[in-house]
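anyone seen this seq b4? input:
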Amino acid sequence: CYLPRERPTEIDYVEKPGKPPHVPRSFNAEETQKLLDAVPGRLVPLIVLCAFAGVRRCEVERLDWEDIRWKHDDIQIWA
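predicted toks r here
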C-alpha cells in the first residue's frame, strides 16, 4: 500500500521541530581588544588565528607551531 504524493496526509499538518537558524556574529576592533585583554595568555594565539586569519577553532586545535610558516606568510592547515 502507498500514499499518493498529491494527497495530503496528517503528517503534512504537524509542525516540524527545528533549531532556530544560527546567525554568526563578528567582533569589531574594540570588542576584539577587550576579548584579548580578558583571556589568559595561552588562549591569545587561538583567538588571534581565528579572528585575523579566518582559521576555524577545530583547525587551530590541530595546528603545530611549525604549521605557521612565517617565511611564506601562510598557515598550513591539514585535512
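Residues 50 and 60 are 8 Å apart (CA to CA). The beta strands are 68-69, 74-75. kinda curious what u guys think
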